[in-house]
Each structure stands twice: as structure tokens, then as C-alpha cells.
Amino acid sequence: xxxxxxxxxxxxxxxxxxxxxxxxxxxxxxxxxxxxxxxxxxxxxxxxxxxxxxxxxxxxxxxxxxxxxxxxxxxxxxxxxxxxxxxxxxxxxxxxxxxxxxxxxxxxxxxxxxxxxxxxxxxxxxxxxxxxxxxxxxxxxxxxxxxxxxxxxxxxxxxxxxxxxxxxxxxxxxxxxxxxxxxxxxxxxxxxxxxxxxxxxxxxxxxxxxxxxxxxxxxxxxxxxxxxxxxxxxxxxxxxxxxxxxxxxxxxxxxxxxxxxxxxxxxxxxxxxxxxxxxxxxxxxxxxxxxxxxxxxxxxxxxxxxxxxxxxxxxxxxxxxxxxxxxxxxxxxxxxxxxxxxxxxxxxxxxxxxxxxxxxxxxxxxxxxxxxxxxxxxxxxxxxxxxxxxxxxxxxxxxxxxxxxxxxxxxxxxxxxxxxxxxxxxxxxxxxxxxxxxxxxxxxxxxxxxxxxxxxxxxxxxxxxxxxxxxxxxxxxxxxxxxxxxxxxxxxxxxxxxxxxxxxxxxxxxxxxxxxxxxxxxxxxxxxxxxxxxxxxxxxxxxxxxxxxxxxxxxxxxxxxxxxxxxxxxxxxxxxxxxxxxxxxxxxxxxxxxxxxxxxxxxxxxxxxxxxxxxxxxxxxxxxxxxxxxxxxxxxxxxxxxxxxxxxxxxxxxxxxxxxxxxxxxxxx
Length: 669
Prior knowledge:
Blueprint: H1 2-21, H2 25-28, H3 32-56, H4 68-75, H5 81-90, H6 97-123, H7 128-158, H8 168-187, H9 192-201, H10 208-236, H11 245-267, H12 274-285, H13 289-300, H14 306-330, H15 336-339, E1 355-361, H16 367-376, E2 385-394, E3 402-404, H17 406-409, H18 419-433, E4 438-447, H19 452-462, E5 467-471, H20 482-496, E6 500-507, E7 522-528, H21 532-544, E8 550-559, H22 568-584, E9 591-598, H23 601-609, E10 617-621, H24 644-652, E11 660-666
Parallel strand pairs: 1-2, 1-5, 2-4, 5-6, 7-8, 7-10, 8-9, 10-11
Antiparallel strand pairs: 3-4, 6-11
Helix pairs in contact: 1-9, 1-10, 3-4, 3-6, 3-11, 4-6, 5-6, 6-7, 6-12, 8-9, 11-12, 11-14, 12-14, 13-14, 19-20, 21-22
Family: Belongs to the monovalent cation:proton antiporter 2 (CPA2) transporter (TC 2.A.37) family. CHX (TC 2.A.37.4) subfamily.
Organism: Nelumbo nucifera (Sacred lotus)
Keywords: Ion transport, Membrane, Potassium, Potassium transport, Transmembrane, Transmembrane helix, Transport
């Protein structure tokens, strides 16, 4: 009794969480491809399963089916949205085009399935009046959750300040409301799970309330309650009950028809190449815990016997176990840097050509820093700048990754400004002050940190950006912490970027003056040791040197014992770009160039420490391949490898006696 109750609670709250995370925009405004693939991928397997069941049922242990026939065929034909979303997340494909299409198709599948299941539940009533009553009750329940419960939910969100915490009382009331809704769903002829799902789906995904509910309940449900459900399934499963060969073969053929129909129904209307279409078809075949929940319900109501239940459960588990490794082999997300034409770097931007920057932010605290760097890049009529401003948000309280304009991301009907609104408002004000020399496009990227780099790199690739500007967060090396996830994101962007990357490290710098060209003043220091990254950093500093409000200081360090012939080509390239910088700024009194010969890295660091000037921005290259001192034993002592050895030293110490921003540059791989 306790086991059954606990497992039912697990499913109730799991269905509730699915509703909370569900993106209703995919339901109300689905894409054509998703509708076409989703419907074909549901109807074709349903027809094949229905035909196979009709002819093979006498060979199975399933008795007369009646209205249960519809539910039976449907359950073997659908692709549960939660199962598809979880598989995409586990395989790091949630942010890929394939993952987004698969989740959208599964959403269409689920919505059609819910409607059919509700109709079937009405048909299962014993009398006509009971069926009419069930339909009327379902309509009344729908009105209750949309016109009574939803306004209450919206009111809770409106009364919660942006960035604030939802009251614990409201969280408890809503969690108790799940049980009430489940009871209502059961009483009116639906299932308790549908009742719980109905309450979840009216809570806006990604809202403060939705995030609070997910954060406070998901771990308890998945780590504590769900194991009781699995235990219950295990107790109902008896491998030794499978003795009837005809029943086993007949059920396998029926399930095979469902899988084949799903595969063919997905591939035929799919406008993808053969390999990707096959991958999508395999994804849609996957089943999950919700199918097992249906089988358990059938077993509980004696619609199937122990043998059939065991065959269904084990077959579905084996199907998913087999398909997951196949997907990792068949489908490889595109590596954007490998396919892009050469030239995506600051060094190779043509004169009088627009500079496109991908500016990434996690919150509003570094908005001024980003704007200052964009302004320092000297946007002008001849050299305009276009910034794609990405507000990066971890995927919490949602199941679907999103890349969209901030105004379309949050579907809540409240008019409260969000964090994205504050960020984009600051950039709009700055853009308006530049008289058209700086354009920007706001985007909100909601995805798991472990795969968010795919979206960032794709945006950079599609828009031919020359620079990704990414804030640096120090890794606290704690398992599961947000800083550890952000560190992984940074490493992934550095490894997969189709253009140059600049990591912004705030060293206590608080420059709050609004960046307007006539009044903007900024002091920049570039430490040049040599190599591709340093040359890219010099190209950025060279562009900055044309700004009338900037002073740029370039210090080139040469080691007295550096006679490695293998680096002769690199030295020639270094000499070329340095010579070009000096010629360009020959008459520019705001640009200074110094050469310093040092014996070792310690002497170089002492020289840097001795600098008396106050700098707003310090720029260094990330990888100093031509400098033995920075590629030898010191690399093993680096704690923040994403900054490189020199960047880590400067970011972690007090070499310069003032507050400043540090920019660590990496050239295109």
C-alpha cells in the first residue's frame, strides 16, 4: 500500500513538472516541419499497430479490447515529450537543430495523444450519459484551470520582484494544489496524472514561480520518489512468466510495427539529409518512463496479464538502450569553425568594414564593461560595429532550449520588466547615442550550460562575427556549482568558436560613465609576448588606437635567451604586425610603443608591476606559444587554464596597483 501510494505520488509530481517545463508556444504556434513530422510520425505507426493488433490479438493473452484498443495502439505509437527531451539533454543535443526539431515533434505527438486519451476516457464510461457527463466535466475543468487558477498564478508572479524569491507559502499551496487537481481529474473521469499536468501547464515556463517549483521539487521527485515507482515496476515484472512463445512473438511484431511506422513516418516528410533523417527517426522511436507508467496502469486494471506487462517493459527498456549509442555514432553536431571560410578574425577585417561582435552576458553587472569595450573599439561611419547581445540563461524550469528575442521568450502575461529587459535597455540607450555607428540585436539564449556553446558558436557562424566577447567566472571547483558549469561553457566556446574570443575579467573596475564618443576616455595597456593570440590582441588595440579619447600603450617583451629557430616564422609575423602598428600610429601621441628585453618571466612580471600609469583595460594573449617561459613548467601551476598562463597570473595577483578590466584574447583556432 505504501509503495503504491509513493509511486503514484512520484508520477503525479513528475507530470506536474512536465507541465511546468513545457513551452506552450510550441503547442500554440508549432513550426510547420514539427507539425508535419509529428502528425505523420503518429498516424502511420498507429495504423500499422492497429492492423497488426487486429490480426495478431488472437495469438496474444490480451482479451477483448473494446475502447481500450485506441489507447493501446496510441501508446505504442507516440513519442513522449519528456523522454525525448531527457534523451536530448543526456546526449548534449538539446541545443542542436536536431534536438530542437525532435522536441517540437514530440510536443505535437503529446498534445494529440492527450486529446485522444481524454476522448478515450469518455468512451470508456459505461453509459452514454456518463460519457456526456465526462466530456462536460472535462470542459469545466479546462475552464477552471484557465480562468480561475491561471490568474492566481499570474498574480503570484506579478507580486514577486524581479530577481526575488517566491514566497514559500505559495510554493506549498501550489504543491498541495497538485493533489487537489489530481483528485478532480480522477473524479471527472480523466486520470490523476492529467489533472496534475493541467496545473503545471498553466505556470509560465522559465518564470520565477516555475523556476522555484522546479528547484524545490525536482530533486525530491527524481531522487527520492521515483525509485519507489521503479521498485514497483520491478516487482510487477517477472521474467520467468514469459513462457508463451506465440504471445511473445505476436507482441514483438506489434511493437516492431510501431517502431517501423515511427521511423518511416518521421523520415518521409523530413527535409534533412539521409543520415540526419535517420537520426531523427531513431530519436522519435525512444520511449520513457511515461510508457512504463501506462503499462503499469493497464496491469493494475487487469487489461494485460503479467507476461504481457513484462514483455512490454523489458522491450521498451532494451529499445532505448540500443538506440542511444546508435545516435551518438550517427549524428554529429556541426563544428562551425571547421566549415567557415577564412577571415573571421580582427586581423583580417577589411578597412571600412563592419565589425560584428557577439557580446555575451549572464547578468546586468557587466553591462557597462561590455559597452565600454565596444565604444573603445571606435565605432564610426566608416568603421561601424554591430553587436549581437546574448543574455545567457541556464535552462531551469524549462524543457526546451530557446534562442529568441527577449520579448518573445517569456510568455507570462505580466508586464514586469525582466533581467533581459534591463540589459537590452542599456544597450539601446547606448546605440541611440552613437548616431547609427553601433547597431545591436538582442537575443536571449536559454540552454544547459554544458551545451550552450553550440548556440553561441552557431550565432557567430551564421552572422560572420569576428569576435566573441565572453565574461570570465572563476571556477570554485565544487561539483555541480554554477561557476564550474560556467567554466565548462568558457572552455567549450574557446574550443569551438568560429572566430576570435575575448574573455573579460573584471578586477574590481567600476567605470560607470556612459560611453559617448565626445566624452569617452579610456586607457589601454597591451602586453605583447608574441604568437597568434598576441597578434590578434594587437589588431584589437590597433583599432582602439584610432579613438580620439583613448590612450594605448603596447609593451613588447623579448627574452634575451630566445634563439629558437623553430619560432623564426612566428617572429617574422610578430615583427610585421608590430611594424605596421608603429607606422599607423607614427604621429599619434596617444599611442605608445616600448620594447623591453628581459632575462626571464620573473623579470617581466617585475617590470609590469613597476608601471606607474593607471589603466582601464589590460589586454594579453591567451596562448604564448613562442614564449618558453609561459609554456613550460608554469603552465602546470595555472589554476584557470581558460585564461592561459599570463592571463591567470594577472587575474590572480596584484601586479598593477589599481582596479581594471583584463581582456584575454584568443585568435581563431
